[in-house]
Every structure is written in C-alpha cells, then in structure tokens.
C-alpha cells in the first residue's frame, strides 16, 4: 500500500511535469491597449486560455512550433506560431462586429458578451439608459430626476436597490442604512459616455457579490482610454440642455493613459411646476502599465445635483380636472445630493498562473430630500411633508487572487478574495417639515456606524465540455446606532455572520450550445436602526435560488438565451419612508422564464428582444390576498439598431410593462404601458449630428405608481387609490458632437 501511494505521487508529479510547458503573452489592439477576454487556443494541444483585464494570458501544454489562434468579437482572428519560450506580443486589428463569428464555447461569459454587443451597437447617453442595458430590468423616476430610480427585475419592486447589488469599478453604489431606504443606489455620478462594459448576473450565484445580491447584480466598468477627445451639446424641449466633454490628456504616451470627462445637465421637465433640475459631473482616470504589465489605476469623480419635484399625484384629482397629469398637490418637494469618489486599483501579475486584483476606495456623500406622500392625512394644518437627510463617508477595500493549475488532466481555476466596507453616517434624519424651510418635528435623528467584512473562495473545475464551479462566501456585519433624540448617550449594537454557498454547472453540448444550472444562497441586510430596535432579528434574511438555462446559436447570426428560474426569500422588506421604518412582509416565492434573442440581419442592422414572465406571491397570506405589490409579471423590450451605415447610426426601441397589482388583494391595479423611443445620428468626418425622441407616439403612461392612502385639504375622509408620477410625453432634442 505504501509503495502504491509513492507510485501515485510520482505519477502525478510526472504528469504535471509533462503539462508544465507553457507560454504567456499579451494581446493588444492597434492602439497598444490591452484586450480583455480574448480567446487563445492551441491548435496542436487543444488547450485554451482567456486574456485578463491587462490583456495577459497564460496557456499550458504549449511549446515552440505550436500554433495559437487568438480571437475576440469585433477584431480579426489571428494565428501565430510559437517560435520560442519568449513572451508573445499579439496585435489584433479592429473590424466590423459580426455575430456569426461568435462561438459560445470560446466566450468567457456569453451573456456579458451579448451585453457588450448591445453597448457597441446602441451606446448609452443617459444615466437611466445605463441600467436599462440589463435585459429585463425596468426603472422609474418619481422625484424630479435627481433621486435614484425605482428598479424592477424578475418580479421584484426593488425600490432603489434592496435586492440588486450595483457597483462601478469595484466600488459599491448601494447605500446601507440610507435615509431614504435600504440599498439606495444613485448611479447619477456615472457619465454614460465613459461606460465601457456592463457585467451583470441574475440570481445570487456569484461568490464575489454579497449584500443585496438576491435578484441579481450589475457592475459597470469605465473606459481605460478614449479613442479621441470630443465635446457635445444637446438642446431639447422643456428648457433641456446637456453638454459633455471627454478629453484625452496623454495622447500616444506609451504605457500610460489619462482622460477627463465633464457633464452638465439642466431641465425643467414637462411638469406644470418647473423642476429646475441641474447636475454637474466631473470624472478623471489615470492608468499606468509597468514593464511587467502590472496595472495601476487612479480614478476620481464628483457629482452634485439639485431639483424641485411634483411628487406622486392622486388619480382622483386628475379625473375631476382639478390638476393636469403634470400638475402637483405639493410642488415644494425636491432635494439636493452630492458624491465624491476616489478609487485606486492595482492589477498584479504575480506568476505565470497567479494574478492579484485589489482596490481601495473612499466616498463622501450628502443627501437631502423633501417628500409628501399623503398630503394632509397626518397633519391637516401643515401637511405631511417630510425631510430625509444624511452625511456619509465610505471606506473600503477589496482583494482577490486568481490561481490556475491542473489536477491531473483537470483544469482548476481558483479565486479567493477578501473585502472590507465601513460606513460612517452622521445625522441620519427624518423630520416633519413645512415648505422645505421649517422643521416641525424630528422623528428620527442619529449616527450610524456599519461595517461589513467578507471573504470568499470559488473554484472552477473543467472536465472537457463539462465545468463545475462551487463557491463559498462569508459575511460579517457590525451595526451601531446612536440615537440623538434620547436624553442619555447609548450605543446600540448588533453583530451577525452569514455563510452563503453557491454551486454552478455548465455543459458545452456543442460549440454553440451551452446548458447551465446555477444555484446559490444570497441575502439582503436590514437598516441598522431597525436591526438594533428589533434586537438583531431579521438582520440578514436569506434568498434561495436556482436557474436552469441555455445559450444557443441555432443559426450563425442568431443568439438565443433562456432560463427557467426560482427564488425564495425569507423576508421581504418594504420601506415606509414617511414613518422611517422597514416593514417585514413575510416570505415570498417567485419563479419564471427569461427569454432573449439577438439577430444580426446584415452588417449594419441588428434586432434584439428580451421577455420575462414571473409568478410572484407571498407565502404566508391566503390565496387572493397574496399578491406582491408592484411586482411585474410580464416585461418585454426590444428594438432595431443601425450601426454605421454610410455614417448613419441609430435605432427604434420599445419597452412594455404590463398591468400589475398595486396592493395585496389586487383590488388596485397599476396600469401597464408601452413606450417607444427613436434616435438617429450622422457622422461627417469630425462632426456628428443627432436627434433623439423619447415617447415617439406621445402615449400617456405612468412612470411610477403606488397604492397610497391620502387626504387632501378639502376632504373629510382619506382615500386609498393610485398615486402616480407621469412618464415623459413626446420629447425631442438635437445633438451636435465634435471629435478631435
């Protein structure tokens, strides 16, 4: 037995030695910028690899004389012969994007490759469109354009981010224990022209994603460089103005990139009471590559915004003609907010098969919002206006090491990571106010300290066409709250640790057919004020989910992705803003079907569509009273896009959201809508002229709707009915851009 064990060890070392011949290299574009996710395939040994964010690759079982095939969608495929063991430097030439060249088996993440196609064909030009690039995700604005949008995904009314983890360049966007709601995610600090990649996933199957990753996650990656500098000006109805500038600061400087971007927006909106909205964004990014292809990235950004709002208006006042659809009951709503971000990222090539990615970030954030949901229900004299305010600092860091090796003939990719986030939130306030000037009563006022430490490990075993990816994540939370309305000083605190396992399977049945089964546990945290008040109960309710899906190319120019999915949530959170509390609403169950397709009709014309059906119900309620308010059960989006047809680009897009229950027994219904948008651009050398039309057919639609009990000043009794914010009517603007 002892001799057999020694023989096994010797054999394993011998096999590993045979496989230890390997080559590393870097893949660049014609501007000498690294290309991420390029596929490197050894035509002789049939081993393969993908390039990292730095453009680096490491491919095993490769020796002098072998031929490597290197490909990436949007670039010409290159075949190079390995002449010696020196590092390879490969340049790929950019070309027209051809969907028929996509091979699903070769893609690192086929679904995200599809989103890269969408972003390439129909670039985003507003913060709202950034989120709409995620298939099946809908948003709605209901506070004058300056507040974070309401989000809908997979049968969730996510509010402002309670069940969707959102990040930018490794920095979290979700705000824990926010004055206006748990998970509040304001993406308005992102200048859309700087977005390079959208990485997203539905469900809670990803070890690197923690708090709020129940329905899914979305991570945005900004551009490392810009091809050319540009300035743009757009003018439209409702006194709308937007100007954007992107400036290359280090043209043709080897191993360094730097650019700066600026955005300014102002509009009154279509409302009877002008929004007086404005926003200023500043963004800068610097990148340096070392001789060893290590990468250091410095990013800084600042945004500030202020606005007035008409809020949600009661349907009865529109029906009786007292106000128009764009009128107001209390037009003193509105607010102001700002955020400053500093982010340092380091990508280190430790060894041929080991890489490190780390970042550290700091955010300074301020928020002040005035709302009136119920008008004169609580205070028949002064009205029910409230103020929500906070000042916050966020300190954080993340690090992950990726290691690749072989266990016999099985390829193993192992990633382990660590993260820390610490929020210091001063003077978190909820007060009753009058006309935004007079504070009538402080309902809540205090300071929050909240810390989240996480660690994860995930493995990826590849057995030919079959891949297994188990993972484990650990999160530890510390909640602390000091109530300033109490006479005696006291720090209330709670701690909680949670472990979230994941297990995913992938099978490449053919080159262009992938089947997968994803499963995992996720969670969303509760507000620190609620956590300490409830003595630690319902701190981190779990989600349990699974996806069974396919990504398929039945024809060369057609990609179809589909998924049957299930999600159980231990505790749903409903934030009641005017009371400053989070109401638990019990266990919920959702299941449904996602279906999407991308079809390239010819070199310049693309068709896309995405549909989601969801059955969403509360588990603990009797049948007929178990509806989840505002949970969409069917959404459908799609469009036709033109990409570079003799200088022309643009498209026609639509989105459909069906009727959905506004309360638990479906006696109040939030009406659905279908809205179409159109844009067309024409480039003449360095000048691009464009026109954009929102709501092309000028339909009446409600962007957000709520079943709310309210009372007007002249009413004796309150009424519960739909209160809504109207969607934008026909809106046209012209754009001129100069590139240099």
Structure characterization notes:
This protein has 740 residues and is mainly beta. Helix content is 6%, strand content 56%. It has five helices and 43 strands. The protein has a 22-stranded antiparallel beta barrel. The radius of gyration is 27 Å and the shape is globular.
What is the compact description of this entry?
The chain has 5 helices and 43 strands. By secondary structure, the chain is mainly β.
Secondary-structure blueprint of this entry?
Elements: H1 2-19, E1 22-28, E2 39-42, E3 48-50, E4 56-60, E5 67-71, E6 78-81, E7 88-91, H2 110-121, H3 127-132, E8 138-140, E9 150-153, E10 156-159, E11 164-168, E12 171-172, E13 195-202, E14 216-222, E15 230-236, E16 240-248, E17 256-267, E18 277-289, E19 295-309, E20 313-314, H4 315-319, E21 333-351, E22 354-371, E23 386-407, E24 410-434, E25 438-463, E26 466-483, E27 491-510, E28 513-523, H5 528-533, E29 542-555, E30 558-569, E31 573-576, E32 581-584, E33 588-600, E34 605-618, E35 634-645, E36 648-657, E37 660-661, E38 669-670, E39 673-684, E40 687-694, E41 702-710, E42 719-726, E43 731-739
Parallel strand pairs: 1-7, 11-14
Antiparallel strand pairs: 1-4, 2-3, 2-5, 5-6, 8-9, 9-10, 11-12, 13-14, 15-16, 15-43, 16-17, 17-18, 18-19, 19-21, 20-42, 21-22, 22-23, 23-24, 24-25, 25-26, 26-27, 27-28, 28-29, 29-30, 30-33, 31-32, 33-34, 34-35, 35-36, 36-39, 37-38, 39-40, 40-43, 41-42
């Amino acid at each position: 037995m002892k001799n057999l064990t020694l023989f096994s060890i010797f054999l394993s070392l011998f096999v590993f030695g045979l496989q230890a011949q390997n080559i590393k290299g870097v893949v660049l574009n014609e501007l000498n910028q690294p290309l991420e996710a390029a596929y490197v395939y050894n035509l002789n040994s049939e081993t393969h690899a993908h390039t990292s964010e730095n453009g680096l690759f490491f491919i095993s079982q490769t020796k002098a004389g072998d031929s490597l095939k290197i490909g990436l969608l949007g670039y010409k495929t290159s075949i190079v012969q390995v002449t010696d063991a020196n590092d390879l430097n490969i340049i790929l030439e950019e070309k027209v994007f051809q969907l028929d060249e996509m091979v699903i088996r070769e893609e690192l993440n086929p679904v995200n490759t599809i989103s890269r196609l969408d972003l390439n064909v129909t670039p985003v030009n507003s913060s709202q469109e950034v989120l709409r690039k995620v298939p099946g995700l809908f948003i709605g604005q209901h506070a004058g354009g300056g507040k974070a949008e309401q989000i809908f995904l997979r049968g969730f009314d996510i509010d402002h981010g309670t069940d969707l983890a959102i990040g930018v360049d490794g920095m979290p966007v979700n705000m824990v224990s926010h004055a206006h709601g748990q998970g509040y995610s304001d993406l308005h600090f992102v200048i859309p022209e700087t977005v390079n990649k959208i990485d997203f996933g539905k469900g809670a199957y990803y070890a690197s994603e923690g708090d709020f990753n129940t329905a899914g996650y979305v991570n945005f990656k900004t551009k490392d460089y810009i091809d050319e500098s540009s300035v743009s000006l757009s003018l439209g109805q409702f006194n709308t103005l937007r100007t954007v500038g992107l400036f290359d600061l280090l043209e043709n400087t080897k191993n360094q990139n730097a650019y700066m971007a600026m955005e300014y927006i102002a509009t009154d909106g279509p409302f009877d009471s002008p929004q007086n909205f404005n926003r200023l964004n500043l963004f800068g990014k610097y990148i340096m590559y070392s001789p060893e292809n290590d990468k250091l990235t410095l990013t800084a950004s600042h945004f500030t915004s202020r606005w007035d709002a008409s809020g949600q208006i009661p349907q009865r006042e529109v029906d009786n003609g007292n106000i128009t659809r764009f009128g107001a009951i209390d037009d003193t709503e509105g607010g102001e907010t700002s955020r400053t971000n500093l982010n340092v990222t380091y990508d280190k090539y430790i060894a041929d098969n080991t890489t490190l990615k780390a970042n550290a970030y700091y955010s300074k954030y301020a928020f002040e919002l005035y709302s009136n949901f119920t008008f004169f229900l609580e205070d028949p004299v002064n009205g029910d206006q409230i103020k929500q305010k906070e000042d916050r600092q966020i300190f954080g860091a993340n690090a992950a090491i990726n290691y690749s090796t072989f266990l016999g003939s099985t390829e193993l990719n192992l990633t382990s990571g660590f993260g820390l986030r610490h929020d210091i939130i001063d003077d978190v306030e909820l007060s009753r106010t009058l006309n935004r000037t007079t504070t009538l009563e402080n309902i809540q006022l205090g300071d929050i300290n909240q810390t989240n430490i996480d660690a994860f490990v995930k493995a990826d075993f590849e057995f030919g066409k079959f891949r297994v990816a188990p993972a484990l994540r650990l999160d530890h939370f510390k909640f602390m709250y000091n109530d300033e309305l109490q006479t005696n000083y006291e720090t209330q605190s709670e701690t909680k640790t949670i472990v979230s396992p994941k297990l995913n399977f992938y099978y490449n049945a053919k080159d262009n057919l992938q089947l997968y089964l994803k499963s995992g546990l996720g969670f969303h945290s509760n507000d620190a004020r609620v956590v300490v008040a409830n003595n630690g109960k319902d701190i981190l309710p779990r989600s349990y989910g699974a996806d069974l899906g396919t990504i398929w190319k039945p024809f060369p120019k057609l990609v179809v992705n589909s998924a049957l999915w299930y999600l159980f949530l231990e505790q749903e959170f409903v934030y009641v803003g005017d009371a400053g509390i989070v109401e638990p609403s019990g266990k919920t169950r959702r299941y449904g079907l996602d279906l999407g397709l991308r079809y390239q009709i010819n070199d310049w014309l693309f068709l896309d569509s995405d549909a989601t059906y969801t059955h969403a119900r509360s588990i603990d309620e009797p049948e007929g009273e178990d509806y989840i308010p505002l949970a969409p059960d069917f959404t459908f989006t799609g469009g036709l896009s033109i990409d570079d047809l003799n200088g022309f680009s643009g498209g026609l897009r639509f989105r459909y959201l069906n009727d959905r229950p506004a309360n638990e027994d479906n006696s109040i219904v939030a009406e659905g809508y279908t809205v179409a948008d159109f844009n067309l651009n024409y480039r003449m050398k360095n000048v691009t002229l464009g026109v954009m039309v929102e709501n092309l057919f000028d339909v009446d639609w409600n962007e957000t709707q709520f079943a709310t009990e309210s009372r007007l000043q002249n009413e004796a009794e309150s009424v519960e009915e739909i209160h809504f914010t109207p969607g934008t009517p026909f809106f046209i603007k012209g754009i001129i851009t100069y590139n240099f």
